[in-house]
Amino acid sequence: MLTFSLGCAHAAPAPLVSIPTHDAFFDAIKLRCGKAFEGEVVFDNDPSPAFDNKLIMHVRSCTDSQLQIPFHVGEDASRTWIITKTGSGLSLKHDHRKSDGSDDALTMYGGHTVDAGYNQAQSFPADQYSKELFVNQGIPQSVGNTWQMFVYPEKFTYRLIRQGREFRVDFDLTTPVDVPITPWGYEE
């Protein structure tokens, strides 16, 4: 007679599975943990006056499986990029908060890698949650969004592309700047 063990309540968590290109990309950003960098819009085919303000990215919180990177636009501390190792790739989410810290109606959208990408570059096509959120929020043109991030020794790039739309911000990684305020909805 065969018997099977179903395990115990104190089993160790499953190991985090990742591939070398995802690890290299993640680790290149993680190396800058605790530092902030100034950026500038280098391409925007539908300019918004909001992005004429000072742009700062802050690699604020880093674990072995998640990076939290607030993106400050002037005094607006509503945006945080969250990159997570999922075991089947990397996820990018955009956490948007109101000034009181509560969730914005348009929050936690993003995408997931669908291939290996490169050590310096990853693409995140919109996931199903995001597509449904965009339709429900009246911006169906965003269902085709793909976010890209590039990290090189001197520069970090955040890019949004879709049919008829491109937005790109480059951050200078050679000169850290003062760490900005805590993003809205996060703890000191």
Give an overview in words.
- The chain contains 2 helices and 11 strands; from the N terminus they run αββββββββαβββ.
- The chain has a single domain, classed as Beta Barrel (Lipocalin), CATH 2.40.128.
- The relative contact order is 0.20.
- The protein is mainly beta.
- Strands 1, 2, 3, 4, 5, 6, 7, 8, 9, 10 and 11 form an 11-stranded antiparallel β-sheet that branches.
**Mean model confidence by pLDDT:** 93
- Termini distance? 58 Å
Summarize the main sheet.
11 strands, antiparallel
What count of helical segments does DSSP give?
A: 2
User: Judging from the principal axes of the Cα atoms, what is the shape?
Assistant: globular
For this entry, give a set of tags:
single chain, 188 residues, mainly beta, Lipocalin, 11-stranded antiparallel sheet, 2 helices, globular, disordered N terminus
Summarize the structure.
By secondary structure, the protein is mainly beta. Helix content is 11%, strand content 38%.
How are the SSEs ordered, and which strands pair?
Layout lengths: L19 H11 L5 E9 L10 E4 L2 E2 L3 E8 L2 E10 L4 E7 L12 E4 L8 E5 L2 H9 L9 E6 L3 E8 L2 E8 L16
Antiparallel strand pairs: 1-2, 1-11, 2-4, 3-4, 4-5, 5-6, 6-7, 8-9, 9-10, 10-11
